[in-house]
Amino acid sequence: MSDLNTTYVSAGALADVERLGIELVEGVALTVCDYDADADGKPTWLVAEGVAHFDRERKAWQLFYSMDDVHWEPRDLSS
After folding, report:
1. Of 1, 3, 14, 12, nearest to 61 (Cα)?
2. Which listed site, 5, 15, 59, 67, has its alpha carbon 20 to 30 Å from 38?
3. How far is CA 30 from the centre of its chain?
4. Which of 10-14, 27-31, 50-54, 56-60 is the least confident region?
5. What is the pLDDT of residue 19?
6. H/E segment holding residue 19
7. Cα torsion at 4, 9, 24, 31 (round to 10°)?
């Protein structure tokens, strides 16, 4: 999960990447999600699919994507 109010990948998302044993490399496909709600206020995931880029100046990973790469998925609250 990452904060999609910015293109930079959050510390929490980076911890998930490390925990899952994924190695981020320049240009790799990356999917991140953030908490959101639909028009009726029901919980949903905001999902962005893009490409990883390392910003050397900020020493941080970014997700390059367009709004065409964003969609919403229902969030199951039962688990």
Report:
1. 14
2. 15
3. 7
4. 10-14
5. 95
6. helix 11-19
7. -10
